[in-house]
Amino acid sequence: MDRLARHLLQRNPDTLKDAELLELLLRYAVPQDAAALAKRLLEHYPNLAALLESEAQELAAIEGMTPECIVLLRLVPELQRRYLISRAAPETRLVDSVSFGTYLLPYFYGAKDEMVYLLTLDATGKVLSCRLIGHGSVNSANVPMRRLVQEALSANATAVVLAHNHPSGIALPSREDIDLTLRLRDALDVMDILLLDHLVIADDDYVSMSDSGYLRRSY
Question: Among 19, 69, 75, 102, which is 20 to 30 Å from 119 by CA?
Fold first, then answer.
């Protein structure tokens, strides 16, 4: 076992540079050229985040990149996303916007496209399911109201939380976001299901539409 692998296995990865960690990963695809390729990649990209978020077609244009290397680089953020999701204990009780955000943020880790998730809860706040409802802009065409209501009913939910991301990086609800939220609230009311919140997520930040007053009724 060489020095790089030994440092990693001894739980001392901070002693390794970015290029060395990248070299260790790439050895599984290009054992002889891993060091040179790692150096080339970090000369092309300003940091690891830019590298791991780059498109497959862009990576393929770099000298020495193979399909196997690209697969390895795509696996890193996806494994991290699923690791973060799996850390949430199934018995967790979600009762406010902070707990909703903490639970839902990992589902959007590294997302470049807009995604919509529906989180369903029982009367005690226990998670029943968290399902990807759709990709694309948050509107009735891409997120049919019927499907949202059916998902809540099939989970036998007492309450739900809707969440979607803004890949632009600005966690501010649009007029369309607000309209969809109010329509969903009213549709769920008929089924005696409570819409607790709609989170608009951007990177590691989010805005709670409930905390912002959008779900408040005016009588």
Answer: 75
